[in-house]
Amino acid sequence: QVHLVESGGGLVQPGGSLRLSCAASGSIFSLNAMGWYRQAPGKQRELVAAITSGGNTNYADSVKGRFTISRDNAKNTVSLQMNSLQPEDTAVYFCHAVERRWGYESNYWGQGTRVTVSS
Fold first, then answer.
1. Which of 58, 66, 67, 104 lies 20 to 30 Å from 47 when distance is taken between CA atoms?
2. In whole angstroms, what is the distance from residue 100 CA to residue 28 CA?
3. 40 φψ region: left (φ > 0), alpha (ψ -120 to 50), beta (else)
4. What is the C-alpha radius of gyration for the chain, rounded to an integer number of angstroms?
5. Is pLDDT at 6 greater than 90 in this prediction?
């Protein structure tokens, strides 16, 4: 089993910054992709950013230019630097990882960390 634990959430004023971190532990073979999703009250969970083991990245249009995702393959960690935060960024942010082995795919989720952007 792979376990994901997030940290770094909190309360921040509009225009401020936060850095989220996620650490994977347990029986890890290879995490082909890691990323961040978020879910606001009354809305569906949406992809914020993702990064492959090769370093390819993908961002939601709403966060391009403001958020940056990075990972350390050796440490099995992924981070999300969030700048110029706005109230619409308020949500619970979830770490996500995909593991592919012998043609099978497994998905893992963290417990979530809350981000609140308010004055």
1. 104
2. 11
3. beta
4. 14
5. yes
State the Cα angle at 109 between 12 and 8, rounded to 5°: 25
Contact predicate 96/37, CB 8 Å? yes
C-alpha–C-alpha distance, residues 107 and 97, integer Å: 6
pLDDT digit string (tens) for 78-117? 999 999 999 999 999 999 999 988 889 999 999 999 999 9
Contact assessment for residue 107 and residue 98, using Cβ atoms and an 8 Å cutoff: yes
Closest Cα to residue 5, out of 108, 98, 117, 116?
Answer: 108
Report yes or no: 113 and 93 within 8 Å, Cβ to Cβ. yes
Query: Are residues 111 and 3 in contact, defined by beta-carbon separation less than 8 angstroms?
Result: no
